[in-house]
Amino acid sequence: MENEKKKRVLVAMSGGVDSSAAVKLLLEQGYECAGATMHLYNNEDIGLERSKTCCSLNDIEDARFVAFKLGIDFHVFNLSDRFKEMVIDNFVNTYLEGGTPNPCIECNKHLKFGSFLDRARLLDFDYIATGHYVQREYCEESGRWLLKRSPDRAKDQSYVLYGMTQDQLAHTLFPCGGMSKEAIRAKAEANGLINAKKPDSQDICFIPDGDYAKFITEREGEQKHGEIRLTDGTFLGEHRGLINYTIGQRRGVGVSYSQPLFVVEKNTADNVLVLGTAEQLAREELTAGDVNFIMFDELKEPYRCTAQTRYHQQDVPCTLYPDERGVRVVFDTPHKAISKGQAVVFYSGEYVVGGGTIL
């Protein structure tokens, strides 16, 4: 009897060690693989001179070299227009509206598991795969795909993948999800991959120097200065433009006071930066919109779970309630530094219940 046809997988290769090791792991499991890198921006999109080599191009060449080493086909998808619209413009606009965006979540939602998966289907692949540290499982009882934390909790990336749909989960593989970073690097080194020791990327990819305020100012012009006030209205000084501050920030605000103060609000309507005490920074609840659930289709009644409002933060107990704008999250104890524009992600043990954008 003829062997069953090998399943074809298009691996999203970033040029880093995780996605490179993912290819090797899939090949060992008998999959037929090809690699592809998304070209997401040009130099002029991120304020670099056209003549300079940007990190995006270096990463593409690293990915191409690994694909050649492993003997697989390699593609480059130019998705720069889509990336500018859905990620860069969203990032800038969210800051200007007083929020704190998470561009990785938007990129995953619209590019990696949107446009990339669409391209893979056009090329007749059965799956896509990424190097994310997360696991997927199929639940026979509910008939749904579930998203589960990586056992390497320090590297777990489930927070940025809460937006995945059932269709996306059904067609995505996470070969690295059950392994540690150390094991992945060892796998890459044992197979002679050039990026085995390549450092993890830390900054937002389209802001290589990490200075997001400068990036926004160069695109939108100098930001208007305004007043810094306490929650009771007491005047404290002048801020340099609201984009330069984040909720929960303590250092670098530029005022002195008799007790520690934190940024508790960015009032864009009046262009006022509001400072308060640690107690005033805490909130008992939040409302989230653009909600996606993974464990079920929709929230119809109160649901007990835990919630995480920042990447790599410890999730805390809460109750979810249906809300006309999405979901209302009520914490068991007041929760600090909740920022509009960030994601709130819900967990049931090690499994992702869903998540949304904090309104």
Explain the overall architecture.
39% of the residues are buried. Mean pLDDT is 92; it is low at 50-55. The protein has a six-stranded antiparallel β-barrel with strand order 12-15-14-13-16-17. The protein contains eight helices and 17 strands. Helix 1 (17-28) packs across helix 6 and helix 3 (80-96) runs antiparallel to helix 4. The protein is of the alpha/beta class. It has helices spanning 17-28, 55-70, 80-96, 103-122, 166-170, 181-190, 212-220, 278-281; strands at residues 8-12, 32-39, 73-78, 127-129, 134-139, 144-149, 172-173, 226-230, 235-239, 262-267, 272-276, 282-293, 303-308, 316-323, 326-336, 343-348, 351-358.
Highlighted features:
alpha/beta; 8 helices; 17 strands
SSE succession? EHEHEHHEEEHEHHEEEEHEEEEEE
Calculate the terminal CA-CA distance, rounded to whole Å. Answer: 58 Å
The pLDDT mean sits at 92
The proportion of strand residues reads: 25-35%
Structural class: alpha/beta
Tally of strands: 17
**Largest sheet: number of strands, sense, barrel closure:** 6 strands, antiparallel, barrel
Helix run count = 8
What does the radius of gyration come to?
22 Å
Q: Can you tell me the residue ranges where pLDDT is under 50 for at least 5 consecutive residues? A: 50-55
What does the overall shape look like?
globular
User: Which strands sit side by side, in order, in the main sheet?
Assistant: 12-15-14-13-16-17
Helical fraction equals 25-40%
